[in-house]
Amino acid sequence: MPAPPTLWFDVTTSWHERGRPNGTLRVERNYARQARERFGQRLRFCRYSPATGRFLAVPADAVERLQATNTDERQRPFGRGALRKAGRRLERGFRRAWRSVMPALLRLADGGAAPFAEGDLLILVGETWGRHDLALLARLKRRHGLRLAALCQDLAPIRFPQFYEGAAFIERFTAYLDFLIAEADLLLAISDCTRRDLLWYAASRGGLRGRLEVVILGADLPMAAPAARPKRLAGLSPGRFALSVSSIQPRKNFALLHRLWHRLAAEAVAGLPLLVIVGARGQGSDALIRAIEDDPLTRPRIRILDDAGDEELAWLYEHCCWTLYPSFYEGWGLPLSESLMYGKLCLASDAASLPEAGQGLARHLDPADLDAWHREIVALLAAPERLPAIEERIRRERRLIDWRQSGAAFAAAIESLAVPGPTPAA
Q1: Exposed e or buried b per residue across 43-56, where buried means at least 16 C-beta atoms within 10 angstroms of its C-beta
Q2: Residue 48 φ/ψ, nearest 5 degrees
Q3: Cβ density class 366-400: b for 16+ within 10 Å, e for less
Q4: Are domains 7-81+108-218+404-418 and 231-400 of this chain identical in fold?
Q5: Which residue has the higher pLDDT, 70 or 31?
Q6: Which one of 220, 257, 328, 402 counts the least CB within 10 Å of its CB?
Q7: What span, in angstroms and rounded, lies between the C-alpha atoms of 409 and 424?
Q8: Which of 71, 96, 147 minimizes the C-alpha distance to 306?
């Protein structure tokens, strides 16, 4: 009986982002841990190196360090300023210099190559559309029988290209999606919404080649909320702040929250909580952040944390009054699931997958209707005594899965592909 194939889990996103706090990294990190637990020695890690044009093996113990998201482990500076910007410039310069000598060093010591064998399986989970050589992947499939499983979170650049800067990114994402439609043996969608979007897009490309399954993301953070408030969150009082978690980019619709808090502050609405925004700064975020900081009404009422670790995020979820998630489009909506997991009401957009993630327990609003969001918040602040009953219903009726359960479904789908045999059509 032939030996089972080696499973290669790609951690290219973790390698490049080095623990920055965003949803894709958290998904890659959690599935990497669950796959390692379930597949044991069959699982190996790799990354794609543009400098060498090859996949390189990554030691398992290095993966945990790459994917660390606790602030103390990452040892990242907090806040803004000239020193932080200078440090980033220095880091970029060092990386450019390192990449210039890396190929020669690897030629001298070629111990890191990832030798895909016939029938091996490569698992792509992260933001791989801009970093991988698709032609190389196609050659590996045809010449060496490499099989490919890929997680698809959303089709945002296809559905909402206006939220992305320049045509180059849209072209890269479209090429990657076309590759997955034609080449992936298994596509894993994170919601029924993403599954529908994939089928809609594939219909214009001649249909899916491989199998399509839905795997729902886990909702638990890897640690419980600390009993004491983390020292970097000084000044935040339990129950006195609202929370919005997401990478800061136009599609996430933080501009609506800025306008909303400006209006509520101008109206001197009683009990208005501080708004805490937690997320990495993405493309298009500079103008919004500058507008918030230059606005005398919102400057003292909105606080942005762009590098919060898991411990801090858990404390924020545990002690916020409620959460907000006004995104124009999501493949799932992990912060909404996490809000429900902590028993917190979420005021969420009614777009795309968010009603699916909300399970009838969130308040869904049109992401373009500022008046509707204003009315909802004013009503919440006018009758805070209603909140305990709302939270009790959330805790009683929520139907969430944790990352172990999600990882089991993920692993089962991968295992079904790892067994030799014909691949059924979607």
Answers
A1: bbbbbbbeebebbb
A2: -95, 135
A3: ebeebebbbeebeebeeeeeeeeeebeebeeebeb
A4: yes
A5: 31
A6: 402
A7: 18
A8: 71
Q: Alpha-carbon distance 198 to 203, whole Å?
A: 8
Distance (Å, whole) CA 131 – CA 123: 15
**Percentage of the chain lying above the pLDDT 70 cut:** 85
Q: What is the DSSP string of 24-93?
A: HHHHHHHHHHHHHHHHGGGEEEEEEETTTTEEEEE-HHHHHHHT---HHHHT---S-SHHHHHHHHHHHH
**Spatial distance between the Cα atoms of 46 and 257, rounded to a whole number of angstroms:** 40
d(CA 298, CA 293): 7
CB 4, CB 117: distance < 8 Å: no
Asked if the model's pLDDT at residue 28 lies above 50, the reply is yes
Does position 420 have pLDDT exceeding 80, yes or no?
Answer: no
Structure tokens at 129: 């559309």
Neighbour tally for 28: CB within 10 Å: 28
Distance CA 36, CA 44 (A): 8
User: Is residue 42 exposed (0-12), middle (13-18) or buried (19+ Cβ within 10 Å)?
Assistant: middle
pLDDT of res. 260: 98
The class that CATH gives domain 231-400 is alpha beta
Residue 293, pLDDT above cutoff 70: yes
Cα–Cα distance, 269 to 248 (Å, whole number): 26
CATH of domain 7-81+108-218+404-418: 3.40.50.2000
For the chain, what is the mean pLDDT? 87
Q: b/e string for 128-146 if b means 16 or more Cβ within 10 A? A: bbebbebeebeebbeeeeb
In whole angstroms, give the CA distance from residue 25 to residue 31: 10
Residue 114's pLDDT band (boundaries 50, 70, 90)? low
DSSP 13-24: HHHHHTT---HH
Distance of CA 363 to the CA centre of its chain: 22
Amino acid at 188: L
What is the per-residue pLDDT for 419?
A: 65
- Three-state DSSP at 180 gives helix
- Judge contact between 310 and 70, C-beta under 8 A: yes
